[in-house]
Amino acid sequence: MINQKIDDMSNDKKIQNDDETLFDDGNEVEVTEFQHEEQDVDANLILPVNTVLQGSKYRIVRKLGQGGFGITYEGMQTGLNRKVAIKEFFMKEYCGREDSTTVTCTLLDNSKKVQSSQKKFLKEARMIADLQHTNIVKIIDVFEENNTVYYVMEHIEGGSLQEYVVNRGCLSEKKALSLIRQIASALDCVHQRNILHLDVKPANVMMRDEDTAVLIDFGISKHYGETGTQTTSSNVGISRGYAPIEQYNEGGVATFSPATDIYSLGATLSFMLTGQRPPEAQIVLSEGLPLFPKKISKSTREAITAAMRPTRAERPQSIEAFLRIIDGGKVVVETDSQIRYVIEQLEIQGEYKEAYLRCMDCLEKGIEVEFAQKKCEILVPLMRKKNKATNRWMYFLAIVSSIVFFIACFLYAIMSN
C-alpha cells in the first residue's frame, strides 16, 4: 500500500477513482484504500512525523494512505537505514487517538468489533509473512504498540499499477500479459493455501520496477478449511468494476472458489489494456462487456471474457485454466471436485439442461461416472417439470392471445357496421 501522488493527466489517459465499498453489519460504507494526503483526513488521527516505534527501531516519515482498517506510513528502519512501509491498525469509523499516539475506541459499544477486526489484522500480517513469493509483498516485522497492531513491509518505490497506467496510458499487450502472469502466479500461491484475496485490482498491485508486479493488501482476504468453508468471518469489500457479482451477495464467498479472484484478475488485465475501469458486475450481468480494441489478440480477449463471466461456475476454475486460455488453449475443468462444483452450481441456478449435458459428457469420458449417473436421475425429472411449466405457460399465452384476437375482430366487426 505504497501511495504516490498521481500527476494530473490529459483526458485521454484519465481513469476513474478506484472506490471500494465495505459491507459491515448490513451498512454500506464507502472506503478508498489509496487516498491522497490532500483529501479530508483529520491530522490528529495520524501518527506525527518522527514518531518512533519499538524503542526507536522504526521512525515515521510520512503518511502514505488510509483505508477503512488501517493507515500506511513510510518509515525508516533506523538500524539498517532503509525505507519501509508500516501499516497501523486503525478503524477510522470507530477509533480515535490520545497523546498523539495511543489508539482508542470512540464508543464502548464498538469495542468488540474493533477487537475482532484487530485480531483479523494481526492474522493477515502473519498470513502474508507465510506467503513467500517474489510477487507478494514481504513482511519484515509484526508488533503491538500504542494499544494497536503494526506490521512492517518492504517499501516499494514504483507506485501502484493503477498509477503506472494512469501516467503512461494503456500498456502494450506483451507488457500487460507479462504483468498479469506475475499477479496470477502470486494468486496461485495464495489459492494453494485455501485463501482468497478478494480485492485484486490495479491499486493493490505495486510496481517494484518497470517489469515486476507485487500483490499487496490482504485486508479482506478469507481463509477456508479443507472442506472449502470459510474459517474467517470478516467484512466483504467491493471494489467497483473489479469485484464479481457474488461479492455483492450475503454469503456469496462463504465457500472457496478461485473463480472469484480470477474475475478480478481478468478485470485488472482489461484495465491495463484499455486504461478504463471495467463496468460493475451488475452491468456485466445485464449488458455484457464492452467491445475490446481490435489490436488485442483473440486469445487475450477470450481470457478476459471467460474470467469475467457473471456466473462463477462458468469462469475458469483455476489460475492454470485462465492462463491456458491466454496461451490459446481451451477452458477445461481440471479436477473431479471442480466438475462436481460446476454441475452443482448449474443445478442450483436452475440450468438443468446444461447440467445434464455436462453429466452426459462425464459419462461419455468416464469421469465421475457414479456422481454423473446420480445427477442425471435427479436432473431428468427436473427438466421435465421445467419443460411442462414452460409448455403450460406457452399454452396459456396462446389462449390469451387467441381470446384477445377474437375480441379485437368482434369489436372491429361492430365498428364496421
How would the blueprint of this fold be written?
Layout: E1 20-24, E2 27-31, E3 52-53, E4 58-66, E5 70-77, E6 82-89, E7 95-98, E8 102-105, H1 111-130, E9 139-145, E10 148-154, H2 161-168, H3 173-191, E11 195-196, E12 205-209, E13 212-215, E14 222-223, E15 236-239, H4 258-274, H5 281-287, H6 298-307, H7 319-326, H8 336-348, H9 352-365, H10 369-416
Antiparallel strand pairs: 1-2, 1-15, 3-4, 4-5, 5-6, 6-10, 7-8, 9-10, 11-14, 12-13
Q: Tell the overall outline.
A: elongated
Number of strands: 15
Query: Oligomer, anyone?
Result: single chain
Number of helices: 10
What is the arithmetic mean of pLDDT?
Answer: 83
Low-confidence blocks of residues: 1-18, 21-40
First-last Cα distance: 81 Å
The helix/strand class is: alpha+beta
Q: If strands are numbered along the chain, what order do they take across the biggest sheet? A: 3-4-5-6-10-9
Helix-strand pattern? EEEEEEEEHEEHHEEEEEHHHHHHH
Residues in β-strands, percent: 15-25%
Q: Give the helix level as a range of percent.
A: 25-40%
Main sheet: strands, sense, barrel = 6 strands, antiparallel
- Rg, Cα atoms, Å: 26 Å
Task: Describe this protein's structure.
The structure is a single chain. The termini are far apart. Residues 1-18 and 21-40 have low confidence and may be disordered. This protein is α+β, with helices and mostly antiparallel strands and 417 residues long. The protein is built from ten helices and 15 strands. It has helices spanning 111-130, 161-168, 173-191, 258-274, 281-287, 298-307, 319-326, 336-348, 352-365, 369-416, and strands at residues 20-24, 27-31, 52-53, 58-66, 70-77, 82-89, 95-98, 102-105, 139-145, 148-154, 195-196, 205-209, 212-215, 222-223, 236-239. Strand 3 (52-53) and strand 4 form a beta hairpin.
